[in-house]
Each structure stands twice: as C-alpha cells, then as structure tokens.
Amino acid sequence: MERPEHRELVYPSDFRLTDKEKSSICYLSFPDSHSGCLGDTQFSFRIRQCGGQRSPWPADDRHYDSGAPVSLQREAAHYLGYVYFRQVKDSSVKRGYFQKSLVLVSRLPFVRLFQALLSLIAPEYFDKLAPCLEAVCSEIDQWPAPVPGRTLNLPVVGVVLQVHIPSRADKPESTSLKQRGHENLLPAPLVLSSVHELDLFRCFQPVLAHVQTLWELMLLGEPLLVLAPSPTVSSEMVLALTRCLQPLKFCCDYRPYFTIHDSEFKEFATRTQAPPNVVLGVTNPFLIKTLQHWPHILRIGEPKMSGEAGPASAQGSWGDGPRHSEATLGGLGSEPAAQTPGRGCLAGGLPKQVKLKKPSRLKTLDTKPGLYTTYTAHLHRDKALLTRLLRGLRRGRPADTLTTLLRGHLLELTQSFVIPLEHYMAGLMPLQKSVAPWKTPPQIRPFHQDDFLRSLECTGPQLTCVLKGDWLGLYRRFFKSPHFDGWYRQRRREMAHKLEALHLEAICEADIETWMKDKSEVEVVDLVLKLREKLVRAQSHQLPVKEETLQRARLHIETAIGSLPKDLQAVLCPP
C-alpha cells in the first residue's frame, strides 16, 4: 500500500497533530488489501501520541476522570480513532472504486456512541463533503461536557442521541438507558443503551470455548496477536478482550487495528527482546510469519452468524491501497460520536470453535483458525456457562440476553479475583482514630505478597466463585503483570487521598484557639501555610472532603492569621 497522498479535511482546523500522527491516522483509516471490504465498514484503531501530553487537561477533563469508572477514563497518551469507510464501484474514478474514510479522533473509549454518530454523518458527508462537516462540528461544539452519572441529549443532523455517561457510582449492569425515564423530546431521541459496551457474545462467538483462557491471558498482560479477516472483526475482538476485565482497568497497550505501515511496527516485530505487553489486531497474514515468535496468536476465520445485519463485505483487493483520507477531530463537547451493528436472534448451535494449537504448527500464511499457545489455564473451564449459552442459542434467545449472561460471568470472575485484593488492601489503611490533628498522619502499610497469599485461605475467591483451579498460581503471575502495578498504584493513590482528607477533617474539627495558646508565631505561620497547601491539594486533587470541611479550614486560617501581629498579617494577606 502506498502512502496516502491527500488528507482532504481536518475539523476543527486548529486541532494540532504532528505529521507522524496524521500519517498514522491516514494509513489506519483504510483496510489493507487483504481485507476485501466492499460497501460500508466501521472499525477502530489506537495510536500513541507523539511527544507525550502537550498541555494540561481542561478542568472538565479532570472532573470527568474523577467520576468515571477507571476503565472508561480518558486516554492520557494515546488517541482513539473511529472509522467509517466506504468502498463502492465507480467507473468515473480512475481506479474503478470510490474509496473514502471519515475518521473521528477522541481520547474517550465510547465506541458505541462514536460509531452511532459516524453512521449518521458519514453517508451524508460522502455526498455533501465540507459543508456537512462544518454544520456537524458546529452542533457538536454545543454539546454539554460528559459528566459521569448524567443522561445527555446530543442533537446532530436532525437526530437527538440520548446517552447515559457511566459513573463510578453506577452498579454493574445498571448503566443501560432502558430502565431510565427520558424527557418528551421532539424529535424523539435515538436512545443508546450504552456508550461503550460491545456485543460480547457476538465478538467472542468463535472463541467461547476458550474465553476463560483468554481472560487469564488478558489478566496477566500477556502479548497476544489477533489475526482477523477484516478490520471490523479485528478491532471488535481486541476491544472485547480489553473489556473482559471490567471493572479492572486494562493497563497494557492495545491496538484494535494495526498495519505494517505503523511507525511502531519494528518495535513489535523485533526478536532481540520479548514481545511487549500488547494486544495487537491485524488482518495481514504476512504478520503471522513476522510475529511468529509471539507467545500467543489467535487466528479468527470468517464470521458466520444467523440473523446478523451489518456492513457489507466481499472478498477482493483494490490494488495499491488508499489515496485519500480525511480526519475529523474533536470530542464530546469537542469530541464526536456513532451506530451499532444489527442484532438479532441467533438460532442453532454454537459456531465452530477455534482450537487450541501449539505455536510450532504456525508455519504458513494459510494457517487455520485457532488459538496458538503453550499456555495452560490456571482455572478449570466453566462447562455450565457453555451449556447455558448453547441452550439459549437453541431456544432462539436474543443476542442481548446471551451477551448479558456472558458479561455477567466475566464480571463475576473478575470481581471474585479482585475482591480479596481489595479486602487485603483496605487492611493496610491506618485506622481513623489514629489520625491526630496536630501530628503527621500515619503511613499506609506496605503490600506484602506472601501475607496476601496466606490470607486467601479465609478470604479467597472460592468464597464467591464456584470455579476450581490454581488460584494461588494465578495470583503469583498476576503480581508480575502491568495490571497489578496499575491496580496497586491507583488504589494506593486513592487511599493516600483519603488519608489526606481524614487529616484535614481532624484539623478542622479541633479547637484551634486552644492549640494556639502556647504556640510561637513561627508555629502559627507554619499552620497557616500548611492549611493553605491542604486546601489547594483538596481542590486540585479533588479529595473526598465536604464543602463544610473546606469552609472550616478557611475559618481556621482566618483565626490563625488574626492572632498574629499586624506586620505578619500584612505578609500573609497582602492587599
């Protein structure tokens, strides 16, 4: 595939991208020549931002992250790209095909919302071009900021999209808008049941027999190459894999769709070091040979589903690849959005399952579908789950019902694994009664892995999960993974903020005048400076303290300053 020669439009025009980022977006916005995509196709990709974070995040961004589930927080150093690609025969074009992509770039992982938005605006854009995008971007610019816990009405091209922004306070499986009342709007809103959740059953259909093995590989942060027949299947499988750990945040790298033209290809293909902790979705069979040294490779065949409506696709190739690409950039508030594939009732038995195979059989470009790995799962397979899914298929249950069943199983599995960690971590927090107002707060005790493993006998996952197996071995490997490091850092940071908040509350509830009676001016000034610093930290770090506590802290500062000589007051409170 040749380098894309032309980027027609970028909105908003002042959005800054490096040439390298623009090039990556252009290459990734078109299926490669091995994916015969005819008609309309939707998929997604993820690229690393060049040069790290360019500027401080706006206050709205920090407010969103503080209230959003950790798995749905904004990307700090990556861009997510959502693509609507059209390829149709057109004799008026020199190459014989009309080929164009509309790309939405965001830091939010709202795949369902952004696909729904693209499905509304892309077909119209392909007909009307620039004027259409100008109007759409103007509408999106008026959207409210994504506040966790709120239901938003988002008008665009004559349609109102109604969505619920997930919050940490939401209970699992409760973020659906189906149970929520909505206003009497004209036109009636198009209600999206979720901004981010995928149809897990449809995504995992060919690998249901190995879904627990894949869950373990994701939990341990193992490198996994996914070879799929199209960018749509590739990106959906990779996203489904990264989402199967919820509510645990996926802390490894992942690329829903990746090509050999990516600037990081050499980094992933090198054999001089172990493969990085990344889930890589590709469609080019050449990469199986190039990345043959990867420890786990999942090859998926052509999807075969009953009752599925989705983008048209056909076998074929279109020469040297794309020549034109557009990137539309923005966010919620200035980050756009899109539609979900059709859903229907699936009848019959489970589709043909990929088989577990040894990597040594991975020799040729025509390798058969399968999960190529030497990994042995620590937990026994849940045969009851497969029986229930198969029974549901035979009875013609809706795909949504089967997805709910599968998602519930994965959620229970992850929670059973994480709850003992949370229980042990909570025990490392100093008791509230040990937090004194005029002393440095006590330290959070360190996490000792051996102590935790010993605690599993009484508080282990066997209390909440029926699955048997080597849970201890799984925890030991988990301790070496990026996900343990990410989880531990997040929890320790939250505990440190809680400890700061408790210390501030203790100071505010104390009698400051009694404390100041035998204190020198230097000690009082030191208290003023420390209280001011705590107020700044409480607001900038959004510590879990009530407004009443902050008001008391301000009164303490005024009282302390008022007890000092006029010259010191002038220094601490300059006009």
UniProtKB/TrEMBL annotation:
Ligase found in the keyword field: no
PANTHER family attached to this UniProt entry: LD41638P (PTHR13677), PROTEIN DENND6B (PTHR13677:SF2)
Highest taxon above the source species: Eukaryota
Alphabetized Pfam families for the sequence: DENN
Domain UDENN: 1-489
Homology family: Belongs to the DENND6 family.
Region (Disordered): 305-350
Keywords per UniProt: Guanine-nucleotide releasing factor
GO CC field: recycling endosome
MF GO annotations: guanyl-nucleotide exchange factor activity
Protein name: Protein DENND6B isoform X7
Presence of keyword Cell membrane: no
Record gene name: DENND6B
Organism: Pteropus vampyrus (Large flying fox)
InterPro entries cross-referenced by the UniProt entry: cDENN_dom, DENND6, Tripartite_DENN
